[in-house]
Amino acid sequence: MRSNLVLGVLAGACLGPWSAWAQPNFDFSGFAAKAKEKVEVRLDPSTIRLAGEFLSSRNPEEERTKKLLAGIQGVQVNSFEYAEKGAYRPEDLEPLRRQFQGDGWARIVNVKEQNETSEIYVRTESGKTTGLAIISAEPKELTFVYINGTIDLAQVADLPGKFGIPKIPIPDAQKQKGKAK
Amino acid sequence: MNLDDELKLAFRREEPSAEFAERVLAERRRGRRNVMMRRVIGWSMAAAMLAAGFGVEYRHQAQGEAAKEKSVLALEIAGRQLNRVRAKLVRVQARNGAESE
Known about the structure:
Strand order of the largest sheet of chain A: 1-2-6-5-4-3
Helix content of chain A: 25-40%
Number of helices of chain A: 7
Largest sheet of chain A: 6 strands, antiparallel
Shape of chain A: globular
Number of strands of chain A: 6
Structural class of chain B: mainly alpha
Largest interface: A-B, 61 and 35 residues
Mean pLDDT of chain B: 87
Order of helices and strands of chain B: HH
Oligomer: heterodimer
Radius of gyration of chain A: 17 Å
Distance between the termini of chain A: 20 Å
Radius of gyration of chain B: 43 Å
Mean pLDDT of chain A: 80
Shape of chain B: rod-shaped
Low-confidence stretches of chain B: none
Number of helices of chain B: 2
Largest sheet of chain B: none
Strand content of chain A: 25-35%
Low-confidence stretches of chain A: 8-20
């Protein structure tokens, strides 16, 4: 299935003008200003290294997270929830999208549903992929995730539910087909 | 004066001044105070370094725990978003598949 193929895309080398930890050059303050709730996390290499020291190898979940972090140089998450629709303009995301064009970046998923768009970008080099960006734009919620480094997408997708954040159930494709009819 | 007389003169006993004994005792007391002062300063520095070391260790522990929590949160959100997109993809593909049949 295409979705499985998408999640099977892995690993890579960091290329282009971006250094080992180069976060996207985009100002989210305008999006944050109108949000009723926001989560903004930025992890640089030293923070990630420190986190790795404190993740216990005796705990299986923490051990998995530790292995996942081992290949990552940086992470950025910006997530905003709005009280009303129309709090931001989707076209204001174009400068952000442009940063994932060229230099090894490719958009591998682009889903449009009613007023929602979801995109996944990955960066690849010599058969390896390092670099993941997710832009999920909904009328009342906007989320941007950027990970720089060698990463296993399948392992990342499997993390939720282990540390308290609920997992999103993946609908059964056949059942969805039946519903759509 | 011959050599003998000169030697006798050079080695003749001379009585010390009245305050000589007092000066020697005072110098000895000063020496003891210096040794004690050096010991107090040394132990104080050792205690201060130990306390600073504990402080640094505590701060490192706190920073490490905070870094761990942030990392877990960031990766969980990333995983959640991947799953959300995947769920949407499945829905859209199913819908498109049903429409084309």
